[in-house]
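Now for my pick.
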Amino acid sequence: MAAEGNGDLPVPDFRTMEELCQPYLNDNKHLDKFLHVTQSIKVNGVTDDALRLYLFPHSLTYHATDWFDRLPRNSINTFEQMAKIFLGKYFPPSMATKLRNEITNFRQRPDESLFEAWEHYKLSIDRCPNHSMLPVTQIDTFYNRLTLRHRDTINAAAGGTFMKRRLEKCYDLIENMTTHHNDWDTLAQRSESSSSITSSSETEIAALKAEMAEINKNLMRVLQVNQQVKVVTPNCETCGGPHSYTDCPTTVGHAAEAYQGGNSYQPQGNRNMLSEVVDFSC
């Protein structure tokens, strides 16, 4: 790229620049991308620092553009100053602390595959380049915050205890597993989910059986009570005793007296008594 005759820098086509240099949630990343893109841009007689200082405002969008326009004119003389002010605005110490805590407090979610957990963890590290964590601490934190199943899987892949391997081997092993075992990990998750559903169904069936047994038990109690009510001995209508009318001694006595008379002549009084007995039985 050459300078124009009047000494002013040309305004290049920034469609690719804007596409590649959009400000990220982590503005460290924006600066890294900006430096990566601009390192291949050269202008005769212009230093890299001056070129970057000139191009940087064109990489900003939205509120970042408004922020830059409010800066005092000629208050920034080097790109290092520009980067420091930019990070002070969009990547303050509180943000760095928050991102650093995301790394140190990392924990694999129950529904997260090994591949997803590793990508999630690496993204947290990339977003906080000033995390000050040694590589060995990074690997140790990641491994110990995995679920037990995935720690066992890594140990099996390591042929023993994962943490006894050299740092480079540990990193390469995790990279290899997350690259080639993503499909397996997804299948294993589905199997676990299926087992969980089956276990849940079995529990529900057992509870339903217990409930049905209790209902049957209560029903049998009701039937037994009804049966006892049906077999209760009725009271005699004649004397009120605990027997039926046909078994009442009083009635049986009258019937016997009437029978003993047979076809022989009976006094008028006896006929009247028999008549009374017959009338009473009706």
Observations:
- The chain has three domains: 15-91, 95-180, 245-281.
- Residues 1-7, 18-25, 269-282 have pLDDT under 50 and may be disordered.
- Residues 222 and 228 are 10 Å apart (CA to CA).
- The chain is about 65% helix and 0% strand.
